[in-house]
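May I ask you to review the protein record following this short note?
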Amino acid sequence: MSLHTNFPSIMRMYDMISEVTSRFTGWGGSSKSSKEFEEWASEQLKLAADSEKAPEVSFLKVMAGERISPESALSESKEMLGPGTDTTSATLAHILWALSLNQSLQDDLVSDLKTANWTTDMTELESIPRLAACVKEGIRWTGAASAMLPRIVPTGGSLLAGKQIPGGTMISSSPIWYLHDETAFPEPHCYRPNRWLERDGENSVALLSDYYIPFSKGPSTCIGNHFAYLELYLSVSQILKKYRIQQPEESMINLDVEATLPPRLEWVAAVPIGKLQVVVSKRLF
């Protein structure tokens, strides 16, 4: 976001290079995908403005009908596509992959869920400590929503971390920096649910809470916050109810290995370079 705002010519050049690279190699970077998405979204806005072609129920149609600019309507509508969708599916994939590497952890979690009669009630699911730990650690570890969250320093400036920042300055901070900060999360690239269960006093609890900001905080918190938790709690519990998750390599089937965050295509997206492969088999009780 900061590059697009402050160095538009550089970003245009980057887009051109990406386009040429894509034509000759067939590889399309994230900028190409973003461009295709922008074109699709703009076309949907045009359809929403057409009373004959627009669908009866459409958030974009509602936004386009309000007294706001087409750009604002398009921006607000695009935001509706992200929360609780790609970020949640990426997090779920990482959690299941991590559980496939650690059969003891998976068995303990299944035992807890079985004791709770495989409940689907969200309040009851949240009260299962090991499930809550696995989900929260998965969200923290994966860091699927790592947008930069830019803000403009107000007129008069502001004092941040002991430094005076001039008014009008664009500043930003990504949730992944907090989620992978070793101050609160030693060895942050390791999937370690026990860090949420083995707490050393109130200070430890407060520290985890201060650094666990996957959805931002306050009035600008992610609108998909509760929906994402609901999806993850239900998905993890119900998948484990029906299936055992294991590694495809026979030599890895019964090992208990602490998962390490796999390399990514780029740090801002939870898209690993390799495949997160698992084998599922019907669970036999």
Observations:
- The chain has a mean pLDDT of 82.
